[in-house]
Amino acid sequence: MTAATTITPLISIVTVCYNSEKTIADTIESVLNQTYGNDGNSSSSNFRIEYLLIDGSSKDNTLNIIKSYANLAAQKNISYKYISEPDNGLYDAMNKGISLATGEWIGIINSDDFYASNQVISMVANKILQDATISLIYSDLVYIDNKNPDRVVRHWKSGGFKPSSFYYGWMPPHPTVFVKRNVYDQVGLFNTALKSAADYEMMLRILLINKIKPAYLPVITIKMRTGGVSNRSFKNRLNANRQDKLAWKINKIKPYWFTLYLKPIRKITQFL
Hints:
CATH topology of the largest domain: Spore Coat Polysaccharide Biosynthesis Protein SpsA, Chain A
Shape: globular
Distance between the termini: 35 Å
CATH class of the largest domain: Alpha Beta
CATH superfamily of the largest domain: Spore Coat Polysaccharide Biosynthesis Protein SpsA, Chain A
Order of helices and strands: EHEHHEHEEHEEEHHEHH
Number of domains: 2
Helix content: 25-40%
Largest sheet: 9 strands, mixed
């Protein structure tokens, strides 16, 4: 075990949103309720969490909801920043957030997801402090019923990583991933030419191509509402598969003939 530093790192969290008035409050509150860096002894110049909300010029009440939490964030000693402007889609907005982030580590949580407990960032920080050689941390995720957040409908248990894992349809659940900032400096931002597979391509680029060292945190850190775009219909799933194939092609690597079939098949086991 290698001690990274005795100073707790600044961790940036990015949420991108558009017309998210029904769910954004849950997301925001799950971030503001994190205990990390909120021991009551820190000054406003010593934030440990930086929270950035990137809104794509929502037409509903999303921006007003975001603004309403600014005072609570200050009370919780969390740096709270937001912008609202048009963007070119989800991953363009994520790239904006990453570019604005000043933390040593960056996590991205979607506007219809929320942290599973108020200890998530503390657990991530502890993992960081245990080993200075890791540059990416991922964990487990559960899908919950849209109408009943206490009902788990699917459990994405990530498991440990090996370079061969991607060839057998594996990827880490992106909402659980925290990446050291200098990794983005090294490998670049999300490829916005891809649609549903931009996060998959990023994980390929970081872990398989650039061989960045990851660490697995075997706990559920994210609760995600069901209804992802890529899974809403057979047509969307087919398009997602094509995007996955392109993710390998643009990185000049070739999957096994069964790799991209295994990726959706692996999801079936998450319902068991």
